[in-house]
Amino acid sequence: MQNLKVALVQTDLYWQDRAANLAMLEEKIWPLQGKVDLIVLPEMFPTGFSMEAEKLAEPMNFTTTKWLKQMAAQSKAVVTGSVIVKEGKEFFNRLLWVTPEGEVLHYDKRHLFRMANEDDHYSMGKGNQVFELKGWKILPQVCYDLRFPVWSRNISDGEGNMDYDMVFYIASWPAARESAWDILLKARAVENLCYSIGVNRVGEDGNGITYSGHSAAYDFKGGTLAFSEKVEEELIVELDAERLMEYRQKFPAWKDADHFKML
């Protein structure tokens, strides 16, 4: 593993306007060229968090996927964020992971936010994915997934090798519940002996819901590496691989973890 440089793009979004959002985000990504290994965008970054799936969805390998490929190639970094995707008759809140070489991987949001009726419009993801970058194993998650720690539990093979080294959450997490976001992001880092990153949006959406950002990066002890409140900005954080591995050896809580399997 080498150290990993990550950009957290905290931004407002134009409501249900893909062209405007992609143009705006291109301006934010361009200065990051060659500076980071991974660029993380918020949940449903082309449209805002909308339940109008039929109106806003696009198939895989269409406009936004092609745009992500272009951004990844230009920035020489993996670019990731979620998009409304249609497959057959189903709609997914799908996180896309796009490499500079043009590879496209994905994770479908598992926990759909019933308080906004997301479960009435989108299909549930069927399993977790772990992506690899510079020797790091990285677990992607989306917004409401944060409230369900069993879904992201980091399991050891008994020799200290764990399922993942960093977990990140992309979100449209309302300001009204920002304290829960802060607490849970830090908890995921501590309980899983990993780095934890969250990228949330700011501003107000077309439903009048406000977002206060609080994008952040925490280390394996819960220490704050980066934090941003309310403003649009790009945070850059470097994750130290050696410190993570040393801590797992010095504080091997993984040896005492409960063993279970997801059904």
| Strand runs, count | 13
Low-confidence stretches: none
Summarize model confidence as the mean pLDDT: 97
What's the architecture in CATH terms? 4-Layer Sandwich
Notes on the protein architecture:
By secondary structure, this protein is α/β, with parallel strands linked by helices. The protein has one domain (4-256): 4-Layer Sandwich (Nitrilase/N-carbamoyl-D-aminoacid amidohydrolase). 22% of the residues lie in helices and 31% in strands. The protein has 6 helices and 13 strands. The protein has helices at 18-29, 53-56, 63-75, 118-121, 178-192, 241-250; strands at residues 4-10, 38-40, 78-87, 90-98, 104-108, 131-133, 136-142, 166-171, 195-200, 202-204, 210-218, 224-229, 233-239. The strands form 2 sheets. Strands 6, 7, 8, 9, 10, 11 and 12 form a 7-stranded mixed sheet that branches. The protein has a 6-stranded mixed sheet with strand order 5-4-3-2-1-13. A hairpin with a 5-residue loop joins β11 and β12 (224-229). α1 (18-29) runs parallel beside α3. The longest helix is centred in the last third of the chain and has 15 residues, at 178-192.
In short:
This protein is of the alpha/beta class. The protein has helices at residues 18-29, 53-56, 63-75, 118-121, 178-192, 241-250; strands spanning 4-10, 38-40, 78-87, 90-98, 104-108, 131-133, 136-142, 166-171, 195-200, 202-204, 210-218, 224-229, 233-239. The chain has a single domain (4-256), classed as Carbon-nitrogen hydrolase (Nitrilase/N-carbamoyl-D-aminoacid amidohydrolase, 4-Layer Sandwich), CATH 3.60.110.10.
